[in-house]
Amino acid sequence: MTASTRLSDATATVARPTSSGIVHLGVGAFHRAHQAAFTYEAALLTGETNWGITGFTQRSNTVVEQLAPQDGLFTLVQKGIEQTTATVVGSMLDVRNATANPDAVVEAIADPATHIVTLTVTEKGYRLDPASGRLRLDDPEIVADLSGRPPRTVVGQLVAGLARRIAGDSPVTVLCCDNLPSNGRILSELVHAFVAARGRDDGLAEWIRRRVTFPSSMVDRIVPATTDDDRADNERRTGLRDDALVVCEPFRQWVIEDDFAGPRPAWERVGVQFVEDVEPWETMKLRVLNGTHSVLAYLGILRGHSTIAEAVGDPVLYEICRTMVLRDVAPTVAAGMDAVGYGDEVRVRFANPALKHTTRQVAMDGSQKLGPRLLGTVRDATSAGGSTGMLALAVGAWCAFVLEEAKAGRVLDDPLSTQLSRAGSASDLLDIDSIFGPDLGATSPFGTQVVAWTDFLRTDSLSEWKRVST
User: What is the mean pLDDT of residues 105-119?
Assistant: First the structure.
């Protein structure tokens, strides 16, 4: 395949920004299908040319190898149940590997032309303790960054870049787009914890408090892994090879706390909601959509389903998810938020057969996801005297999945894989304090429920779940 037949500025006529105003950490499929697309569409409407994106991948070089030869261009394919559309997105001006060139990340964050730093590095990228939400100061990579090496953690990169902005007193907005409750507040606390751990009296903490904002946000769009068939279909349609192709559902949502330190794109023109408090939307999405996603992933794997669409099409799993939202989750969300209706909508979206979102893709990094998706709900339900039985089934599904993977000799895709693989029972897993804290361990009332469900899932037919749950 020659360069003349690959998507690029030379082969496609696409409006492009002339300068970069956004730095993004964690360039992956979700960012391209969500923030990059919103930003591009807003610029097309306003004619502004200063909202290009400079992106950094934090791990694999694959994204760089896909996007760089294409001048940052990629096709976004939206697959609905009845219709598929495809558009070329031109907001990515540059993409680099942060691991290979950590100084470039710091320079980009420090650049006065950068008004916003956005992040989608997944829960594990923040190197926080899932139970406490605090920065793991004993994490080897955090320790190494604190020792003065060119930073390789996102918190280290942010702090180094912000430190360089002091000289020009240039304000900046740091916008977390990951699935963490109160993600802006948490990221602010992680940054300040890192600054304090440096032990320097350079005024950085005070400057950050004055000139940097950390708005919370909620993002929602299903973005499965792109397949070779997806790329081949697009090439047949367009005549151009696109290695950076992204596939997603038509639905999308972005709710942002209206707290910016400086200018921003006109995202409201393309459907972004700016609100005073993101928490009601964020909590409902995490507990209903993401919680349901995890349940379908773990139970789906246990029942032999390879995709989320297959899993939600299983009548038993569909009813379990519906009951969990109705009985355990809905009472914990803010008044006025229709968690039950939202749950119904979510299951319809998950059933879209055009989206090949695999159960194993959703199941990865479970130790980091349980807290925001399920355990926060457990704690709120418990304190209110509410039901937690279906939430215990959900956590039991994770336990059964982990134990079955270890039994089969498969390596878990999880930051705590070594520790998880040593567990011989659900009780062992529940006693991992960094996941469940001191209140939800094996001997707690909730832990007892989880152990019982785990044993049930490993020995009995799931079709009998209603009898056990009553």
Answer: 98
